[in-house]
Specification:
Helix content: 25-40%
Number of helices: 12
CATH class of the largest domain: Alpha Beta
CATH topology of the largest domain: Rossmann fold
Shape: globular
Radius of gyration: 22 Å
Structural class: alpha/beta
CATH architecture of the largest domain: 3-Layer(aba) Sandwich
CATH superfamily of the largest domain: Glycogen Phosphorylase B
């Protein structure tokens, strides 16, 4: 497979670069679209911090660049506008205005569809309308799996290029041998109880799954902000039920903690034998990709297209509810078989080189059209 510096494409811009406004640029997915060796013609603008310092819960800010007035004022500074995440707070009308500003400036819009359904919204209507607005104006569309591409075609009659998710861990940790630890640890990270999580039902099923398995235990992790009355994610009733579950089962523990930083998260995931995704709806998962980097087995729901991303075990979970028996069976298969699905460092870096090339080719094709 040719790398970017081995087979440089032809550019319209005199300096040989393509300047891309990525929404947002700081997300690990976007950062890992760059060529790992640095030989990349694509220059991604840095995120613009908000002037008032306002952020959403979790510390991330709504993208300043995702604004029609900002596009009007700064269109000369970028060649392509690429939307990944961050349009949650924008109305379809606001997105229409942004698309209009891009069209007036002659800047092509690229959209990567990560989520066909917003994992933070119970009601799908707004996200579907937002995504529909963006796709109606997109010069090119990318998604991560063939199943998602088929769904995009079915819903909006739009063809999407399928490109895999890049590695999530830093290059220095890719391919590291797993450290041995006592027992068999099944992890359920409830995070801050976002809308697509069916935490209580999944936790109850998992408690039954580990019961009686020698040296097996369930570790439930929960962000401590769910017990903070002043926090956006305050949900003490669910938190107390999880505490009760841990008290009533010898093989279940609840760990309450603030958000992990990246290193803490990688160490946590590496400490697990199995990580269970408790989603009742969703599309793709960066969490699954991190587990693949680390060699932690994932048990994923049947909703979405997780099984098309990377090797994993699956259980029934979606619009028809949780198949608790299938979840128990998946955990017990993992316990008995101990599958080892871990990314190879060299493969991940070759994949990233390919992703950088494919994005550069796409941007150049749009600019030369």
């Amino acid at each position: 497979m040719a790398s970017l510096h081995e087979s440089p494409p032809v550019f319209r811009r005199s300096d040989g670069t393509v300047r891309v406004a990525s929404i947002p640029a700081s997300h690990v997915y976007v950062r890992h679209l760059g060529a790992p060796g640095g030989h990349d013609p694509v220059v991604r603008l840095a995120d613009v911090p908000p002037s008032d310092g306002e952020t959403v819960p979790g510390g991330w800010w709504p993208p300043v660049m995702l604004d029609a007035a900002w596009v009007d004022a700064n269109a000369a500074d970028f060649d392509v506008f690429h939307v990944h995440f961050g349009f949650d707070a924008k109305t379809p009308a606001e997105l229409e205005a942004i698309c209009g500003a891009l069209a007036a400036a002659g800047v092509p819009l690229v959209v990567t569809v990560h989520d066909l359904r917003n994992p933070h919204h119970d009601d799908d209507a707004l996200h579907r309308a937002q995504l529909g607005t963006l796709l109606a104006h997109a010069a090119a569309v990318i998604t991560l799996t063939p199943g998602a591409a088929e769904e995009i075609s079915r819903r909006w009659d739009v063809a999407a290029q399928v490109l895999p998710h890049p590695h999530v861990l830093p290059r220095t940790r890719l391919g590291a041998p797993r450290r041995s630890h006592p027992g068999f640890v099944v992890g359920l990270h409830a995070k801050s109880l976002r809308a697509n999580m069916d935490v209580l039902a999944v936790a109850d099923a998992l408690a039954g799954a580990v019961a009686g398995l020698p040296e097996a235990r369930l570790q439930i992790n929960l962000h401590d902000e769910v017990f903070d009355p002043g926090n956006h994610w305050y949900a003490p009733d669910v938190g107390e039920q999880l505490r009760g579950l841990a008290r009533s089962h010898d093989q279940v523990e609840l760990v309450e903690h603030p958000y992990f930083d990246d290193d803490e998260l990688w160490d946590y995931l590496a400490s697990l034998d199995v990580s269970v995704l408790p989603y009742r709806f969703g599309t793709h998962s960066g969490w699954l990709e991190a587990c693949f980097d680390l060699g932690t087995t994932v048990v994923a729901p049947s909703c979405g297209f997780y099984a098309q991303q990377r090797p994993c075990l699956t259980y029934g979970h979606g619009d028809k509810g949780l198949d608790a028996d299938a979840l128990v069976e998946a955990v017990r298969v993992a316990y008995a078989m101990r599958p080892h699905w871990q990314a190879c460092r060299e493969d991940r870096l070759r994949e990233r080189d390919m992703l950088a090339m494919e994005h550069a080719r796409l941007y150049i094709r749009l600019l030369e059209a």
